[in-house]
Design brief:
By secondary structure, this protein is α/β, with parallel strands linked by helices. It has 18 helices and 23 strands.
Length: 510
């Protein structure tokens, strides 16, 4: 018997799981933190805050599970993607991390699109560059904080900073590095020619390993701070999207996940780096068998509901929101919500997109708004599913994941709006489980990722079947949803006062 520690560094919290190689999940701990918004369009966090919260939850795991904690034989990671941490030679952050939610780099995005056309982006990056990705964020630092870039020795992704604090080794893994959009995805290496083309320093980009390779070992300093044994092997880990797909049991082609967390994704595993030629979806490296993941992203999924809960309705409990939504009939009596509070990725790739409620009448009240938000987020995710179908990626059953999978009402909405069966994993923290499985497989505790997923991933008996009574209603609602963006994008202007239609990075959206 061996025990594995899996750490998932998310946008709003860090979670840690102890997994017994025979018994399964022993304990999960979490610690929260906020996204700092120093200016409109900015989204930052202090890396040292991540580390402080990580240490706290590891120590709580030791306190509650002393015997098992002492048997930890491997450590793995999952983490929020796209963001960057800039450090000096000693790994000390030079500024707050710039997160995936950040929109400050719109002007830098223009420069990128003036130099790189969509064909080159597809051939090299397999992705359309977007605000919040490491590439334009780094360009912003070069333009607005040149003194910071001059002092920078390394850039890391968020989870890489935590791994560095545990091992003393600075590096990234190919899944997370590919999400920066300055990575040659098919060749699984940094896009060095593009880095040179934009005058960025080559030497700040760290070496990259595969997710299951051992990146280093727990140092004496980390052991003292976290109560761990010195010398425990630590694997590179993966981006949260790839890790949670493993935690949902996906390690081969033919299955699709709908994850509704802070953001939302429709994703699947593919063997080859195929991509949407219009670049409406993302293709990044996966952590299994040097494969790839293709997915569409909705930026404000659970965050839309949190915004409504905290800033509009001022309600404390998410469960109360779910109950309220269940009291309103499907379709929200014609009320439609666009979840574009921080711009949108799939399919529009438009950082200037705006959220809205449409179709309000005197009959509507707060329960309608709650249901409309849930339906709007799900319709936005249907956009991604539609593109998957265009690419020939099909399936009959969706695996629901994230916070949205805790709501019976939201699960039924997914089945009805997607017109597909929806199932849910028994383990709720799929990204943590994926991090554990990667570490256990990389360190020889498990024979393979497939063997580990078969052992630890199971699904609830309840299957959510699409209700044929609402098929036509939701199809009509979905067409209205799509038309709302098309018909209103002209007034969705950015802070420079420029019409969106003039931005080259918008063209090709769905």
């Amino acid at each position: 018997m061996s025990v594995i520690l899996g750490i998932d560094l998310g946008t709003s919290s860090v979670k840690a799981m102890l997994l017994d190689s025979i018994q399964g999940v022993l304990e999960v701990e979490s610690g929260g933190y906020d996204v700092e918004i120093p200016k409109e369009g900015y989204a930052e966090q202090e890396p040292e805050k991540w580390w402080e919260e990580t240490k706290k939850i590891i120590l709580r795991l030791r306190e509650k599970n002393g015997e098992a904690f002492g048997q930890i034989a491997a450590i793995g990671f999952s983490g929020q993607m796209h963001g960057i941490v800039l450090t000096d030679e000693k790994g000390t952050p030079l500024r707050p991390a710039i997160l995936w939610l950040d929109q400050r780099s719109k002007k830098e995005l223009e420069e990128i699109y003036q130099k790189i056309d969509l064909e080159k982006m597809g051939n090299v990056l397999r992705n359309r560059v977007y605000t919040g990705f490491g590439f334009p964020s780094l360009m912003w630092v070069r333009e607005h904080e040149p003194e910071i870039l001059q002092k920078t020795r390394w850039i890391m992704m968020p989870k890489d900073f935590i791994r560095y604090k545990m091992t003393g080794k600075i590096a990234s893994d190919v899944t997370d590095a590919s999400s920066t959009a300055i990575f040659h995805t098919a060749e699984r290496t940094w896009a060095y020619d593009m880095i040179r083309e934009f005058g960025l320093p080559l030497e700040i980009f760290p070496p990259c390993g595969e997710s299951m390779e051992i990146a280093g070992y727990v140092t004496k300093k980390c052991a003292m701070e976290c109560g761990l044994k010195e010398g425990i092997p630590v694997v590179y880990g993966a981006g949260d999207q790839q890790a949670q797909s493993i935690g949902n049991g996906i390690c081969e082609e033919g299955k699709i996940i709908c994850n509704i967390g802070t953001g939302g994704q429709i994703s699947t595993y593919i063997k080859d780096p195929i991509y949407d030629k219009k670049l409406r979806t993302h293709t990044f490296c996966h952590s299994i068998d040097k494969g790839y993941t293709i997915y569409g992203a909705t930026l404000c999924s659970g965050m839309s509901l949190k915004w409504l809960k905290d800033k509009i309705l001022q309600i404390d409990d998410f469960d109360q929101l779910s109950k309220m939504a269940g009291e309103i009939a499907p379709g929200s009596e014609g009320l439609i919500y666009l979840p574009y509070l921080t711009g949108e990725r799939t399919p529009h790739m438009d950082p200037c997109a705006k959220g809205m409620f449409a179709g309000l009448t005197l009959r509507h009240e707060r329960r309608h708004m709650v249901r409309a938000v849930m339906e709007g987020v799900t319709m936005s995710l249907r956009d991604s599913l539609t593109i998957f179908q265009e690419l020939g990626i099909k399936c009959d059953t969706i695996i629901a994941s994230g916070g949205g999978a805790r709501s019976h009402e939201w699960l039924q909405m997914q089945a009805d709006i997607f017109h597909k069966k929806v199932v849910v994993c028994e383990v709720s923290e799929q990204a943590c489980l994926g991090a554990c499985i990667l570490a256990g497989s990389g360190c020889g505790i498990f024979a393979s990722v497939k063997q580990a997923t078969e052992q630890f991933v199971s699904f609830r008996d309840k299957v959510y079947e699409p209700d044929s009574r609402y098929e036509k209603l939701y199809d009509k609602q979905y067409e209205r949803f799509r038309a709302l963006y098309r018909n209103n994008r002209e007034w969705m202007v950015n802070e420079y006062g420029k019409d969106n239609s003039g931005y080259g990075y918008r063209h090709g959206g769905g």
